[in-house]
User: What shape does this take?
Amino acid sequence: MNTDTKMSVLYTREEIDDAVKKLASKLTSTYAGKNPLVIGILKGSFIFLADLIRRLNFPLEIDFIRLSSYKDARESPGNVTITNNMTADVRDRHVLVIEDIVDSGVTIAFLIDYLKTKNPESVRICCLLDKPSRRQVPVKVDYTGLTVPDKFLVGYGLDWDEKFRNLPEIYCLED
Ligand code: IMP
Ligand code: MG
Assistant: This one.
């Protein structure tokens, strides 16, 4: 797709689909009948969320929050800010946060603290990818699709400098 950037496939469509299927089955056991509020973190989670919720065959609601922590591609995370807030009322709801990848943990830790000030019934985290080797803040990730190595990944919603989100597979960027 881009001849200037060296990258190799880390997860194929089939492997991603398999991970999404397994997550959906776990989430169904926990959330069926609870009308959860599913909150996607933009932008990275939009493709994962779209695939995941189509495997959840029970009533739920969707909202989005846009957070920014990386100032530039590959830069270490700084303060997290809400750049577009959600509109749903979180109070007394079972909240399920959908994230593309948990890296340092800074983004998720910020969001959990933020949501808890709004008195939800419960808050859990579901990420497609977890990069535990890079953790700077301890966070409890309740549902993980794939545990990934310390590499910069793109595709399936994940970007490098806003590029490559549209790739259907997950790729490793080679530096
Ligand atoms: P955090 O370091 O856990 O706060 O991760 C924050 C955000 O950084 C994630 O939501 C992703 O959008 C982005 N991110 C972390 N690692 C990668 C990666 O390997 N590729 C693309 N984006 C990443
Ligand atoms: Mg991102």
